Amino acid sequence: MNALDKIYENFLEGTCKKFNVPAEAETLLKEGFARYSAMCEAEEAEVEKFRKKPVSVDAIEWTGDNFDDIKDFAGDKVKIKDGELIVVTREDGKKTKAEHVATKGDYVIRGVKGEFYFCKPDIFKKTYSPA
Fold this sequence. Notes:
The protein folds into two domains: 3-45; 58-127. The protein has four helices and six strands. The protein has helices spanning 3-18, 23-45, 67-74, 121-127, and strands spanning 58-61, 78-81, 84-87, 100-102, 107-110, 116-119. Strand 5 and strand 6 (116-119) form a beta hairpin. 12% of the residues are buried.
C-alpha cells in the first residue's frame, strides 16, 4: 500500500464514521478499494522496456524534387496530391481513407513486410544507420 492508498483508507474510514455507515458497508468499500488498488498496481507492473531488433530497411529521402525516384521505389503506394507526397500505409486498409502526407526531408521506408511508411528525419537519424 502506497502513501496515497493510506490517505484514501484514512479518509474512507473517517467518512464512514462521520456518516454512520454500517460496518458491513464500510468493509465492502475497503475491500473494493483494495481490489482496485491491486488492479492498478498489476497494470503498472506490466510495462516493460523493449529494444528494436536490428533489421535492415530500404529508404529514400523525399526532397520535393525526386517523385520519379520515389515512385520507382514505392510504386502505387505513393502519389502527389495538391503538391504533397501521399504515402499509402498498411493502416489505411483497402479503402485508403487516411492520407499520410510526407514533408520534404522525410524518409519513405519499405518495412520488413513490404509495407511503406514515412519517418521524420530526426527520428530516422536516431533509429537507422547505413547498412
